[in-house]
Design brief:
single chain, 165 residues, mainly beta, five-stranded antiparallel beta sheet, three-stranded antiparallel beta sheet, rod-shaped
Length: 165
């Protein structure tokens, strides 16, 4: 019996110690922030040249295409402008040849039908919203058949692609 009494007393004493300990415990609360800033970014992933190959004066009007692969932040609005080397804002360029003073006129379009020009100002720019993934924008280049009556030679032009975001 004495053992039981001693065990009960020890039990009460240890409970009192625990209660006394928790009553004197100090709890401190604080917090911290987790931060990150995502920079606004658009990149031109790839764009391929447009090559009409070899043509002669009997070749009719030709339309070729290429694809701009652009990546912009998710939900980031952007505009893509195309500017031939002659700086024509409506997307009409001129291919030149080192062999002659003649030029070959071409036009840049947003659509395969050639109804919507693609240039470097206002409605001639293509407006998009980024998805965070690569977006593909087709570019159509049209040369009228009458342009192929020019002197023989290799004709070339450079089109600048710019993204405004």
């Amino acid at each position: 019996m004495q053992f039981k009494k001693l065990a009960v007393t020890a039990l009460f004493a240890s409970g009192a110690l625990l209660m006394g300990h928790s009553a004197s415990a100090v709890k401190l609360d604080n917090s911290f922030n987790v931060k990150l800033a995502i920079n606004s970014l658009c990149t031109i992933e790839t764009v391929d040249d447009v090559d009409f190959g070899q043509v002669d004066s009997s070749t009719g009007t030709q339309t070729k295409s290429t694809q701009l692969k652009i990546k912009c932040n998710d939900e980031k609005p952007y505009k893509v402008a195309l500017k031939p080397s002659d700086n024509n804002p409506a997307g009409q360029g001129k291919m030149a040849s080192p062999d002659t003073v003649d030029t070959i006129v071409y036009n840049l379009y947003q659509d395969a039908a050639g109804a919507v020009p693609w240039g470097s100002t206002g409605t001639n720019e293509v407006s998009q919203t980024g998805t965070g993934s690569v977006q593909t924008l087709p570019v159509y280049v049209k040369v009228n058949g009458s342009e192929f009556n020019k002197p023989a030679g290799h004709y070339n032009d450079v089109v600048a692609v710019s993204i405004n975001y």
